């Protein structure tokens, strides 16, 4: 069993405040409004290769992480990333920019463009130091559809577009209730709810996230304290909007983007450089980050799309939305993380191969220790490594009741495949 002190959670790495891991320092880049200029991919690839291990992760919050830096190379990496405009001026302002943005908003005609609202909130979080007191993992999300969860990820405060000129603002812990607002009131409502959370936390430090505040005070009380009227929200069809945006993305036959999935969220500097080259040649100006670990390249014709997807496939990346690897949330595992007791990515690859082709695959979270860093909340199947073996948990997070205990890594692929088959009957 890992010492509890080493399993402490509560903050995330940044660029200015890197985190020590088993393979060196982790440097996290937080894109503005979920978007990077295409030239940033070239800079990040070169920086990762020169100053780190060359491995880059796309996180479940849509951020990019460079791995394997040292104390000396970190300062050199910051200089190059800073010259490219990818670094915040203050680590506290950087830390508070935890916003997940619908990666298809503004390019998919079927979705509302929520980028201006996101940008306004981001600027307020940076400029108003009151919000710098937020816990390190406190986050926001903006969805261009009626489904509040972007990529099936819950955040502390969620904004969704439920009708023309009408948005819902909802809270983790009671997503079925929310405030219905016109566009011009959305950001004010979000900051008001955040201020109420900070007041509740000041009187009770056991409140670490909005879910805790909802459990203690009730969502109706929190909305009322923010001057908002809450109402029961209509249920939405999640499956139609939560598929990973990989492959050819079209609306009524017109292509609007090419989505490139990263196997278990990982890409290397060479692969990223190759994507930059083909996307740049296609005239793509920006790349969007999906929390489902997909890079979305806006394009406007079939040739540009095909060029990007052909190169991505050549690089061993994901170009089909039904690739089972997109259903996995996988931490770096051993030896990259000192807490992990299994090689999670190796084991996830074997599981993905074992279940490939099966219909209706569930979400799968593979965690090298009890922290469960790769996914917040429940997955259909959660695999938690303890002392080199996996416990399997159904429809819960890593702290949930164990359905299948102490499975060896050599047997985990067949055990999961058998488990899925038996429970599909």
From TrEMBL:
Gene3D superfamilies: Sulfite Reductase Hemoprotein, domain 1, Sulfite Reductase Hemoprotein,Domain 2. InterPro entries: Cbl_synth_CobG-like, NIR_SIR_4Fe-4S, NiRdtase/SiRdtase_haem-b_fer, Nit/Sulf_reduc_fer-like_dom_sf, NO2/SO3_Rdtase_4Fe4S_sf. It comes from the Bacteria. Keywords: 4Fe-4S, Heme, Iron, Iron-sulfur, Metal-binding, Oxidoreductase. GO terms for molecular function: 4 iron, 4 sulfur cluster binding; metal ion binding; oxidoreductase activity. The keyword Nucleotide-binding does not apply. Residues 18-82 form the Nitrite/Sulfite reductase ferredoxin-like domain. NCBIfam families: CobG (TIGR02435). This is Precorrin-3B synthase.
């Amino acid at each position: 069993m890992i010492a509890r002190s080493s399993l402490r959670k509560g903050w995330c790495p940044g660029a200015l405040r890197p985190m020590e891991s088993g393979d060196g320092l982790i440097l996290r880049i937080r894109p503005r409004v979920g978007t990077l200029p295409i030239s940033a991919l070239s800079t990040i690839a070169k920086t990762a290769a020169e100053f780190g291990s060359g491995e880059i992760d796309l996180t479940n919050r849509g951020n990019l992480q460079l791995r394997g830096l040292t104390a000396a190379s970190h300062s050199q990496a910051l200089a190059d990333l800073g010259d490219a405009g990818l670094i915040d001026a203050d680590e506290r302002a950087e830390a508070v920019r935890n916003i997940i943005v619908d990666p298809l908003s503004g390019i998919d005609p079927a979705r509302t463009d929520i980028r201006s609202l996101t940008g306004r909130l981001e600027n307020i979080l940076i400029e108003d130091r009151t919000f710098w007191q937020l816990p390190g993992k406190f986050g926001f999300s903006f969805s261009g559809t009626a489904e509040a969860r972007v990529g099936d990820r819950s955040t502390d405060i969620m904004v969704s577009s439920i009708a023309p000129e009408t948005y819902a603002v909802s809270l983790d812990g009671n997503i079925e209730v929310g405030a219905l607002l016109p566009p011009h009131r959305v950001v004010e409502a979000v900051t008001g709810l955040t201020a109420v959370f900070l007041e509740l936390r000041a009187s009770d430090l056991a409140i670490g996230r909005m879910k805790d505040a909802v459990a203690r005070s009730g969502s109706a009380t929190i909305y009322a304290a923010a001057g908002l009227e809450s109402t029961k929200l209509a249920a939405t069809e999640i499956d139609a909007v939560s598929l990973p945006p990989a492959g050819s993305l079209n609306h009524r036959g017109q292509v609007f983007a090419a989505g490139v999935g990263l196997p278990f969220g990982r890409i290397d500097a060479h692969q990223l450089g190759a994507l930059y080259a083909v996307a740049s040649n296609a005239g793509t100006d920006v790349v969007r980050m999906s929390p489902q670990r997909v890079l979305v390249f806006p394009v406007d014709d079939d040739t540009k799309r095909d060029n990007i997807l052909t190169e991505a496939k050549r690089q061993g990346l994901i170009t089909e939305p039904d690739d089972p690897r997109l259903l996995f949330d996988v931490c770096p595992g051993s030896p990259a993380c000192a807490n992990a007791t299994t090689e999670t990515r190796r084991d996830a690859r074997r599981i993905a191969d074992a279940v490939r082709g099966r219909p209706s695959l569930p979400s799968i979270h593979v965690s090298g220790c009890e922290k469960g860093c790769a996914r917040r909340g429940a997955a259909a199947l959660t695999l938690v490594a303890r002392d080199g073996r996996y416990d399997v948990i159904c429809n819960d997070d890593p702290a949930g009741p164990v359905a299948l205990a102490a499975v060896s890594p050599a047997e985990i692929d067949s055990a999961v495949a058998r488990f899925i088959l038996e429970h599909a009957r």
